[in-house]
Design goal:
Elements: E1 3-9, H1 14-28, E2 33-39, H2 44-50, E3 56-59, E4 62-66, H3 71-85
Parallel strand pairs: 1-2
Antiparallel strand pairs: 1-3, 3-4
Amino acid sequence: MSARVTLYSRLGCHLCEEAREAILSLRVAGCDFELGEIDIESDDALLRRYLERIPVVELEGEVVSELVFDPEALRARLDTVQAVRGEGRTG
């Protein structure tokens, strides 16, 4: 079972676009995860919660990075989750 990464973003956010590209590059580098993206403008509560923090990246419901995407933080957390599950990296 792949880890679940969620990107909270909004249309036209250049930091969100950069985060999405960097997250996908981790997959190309061999990290195994599913990526879901949530547009914070789809819900008023999400908009209030995340507007000043996007892009917000969660792994399995835990915030790993916000405002400026930290790929090393996500990679380290993915490695930890996969090690606990006994999966290891593929590729």
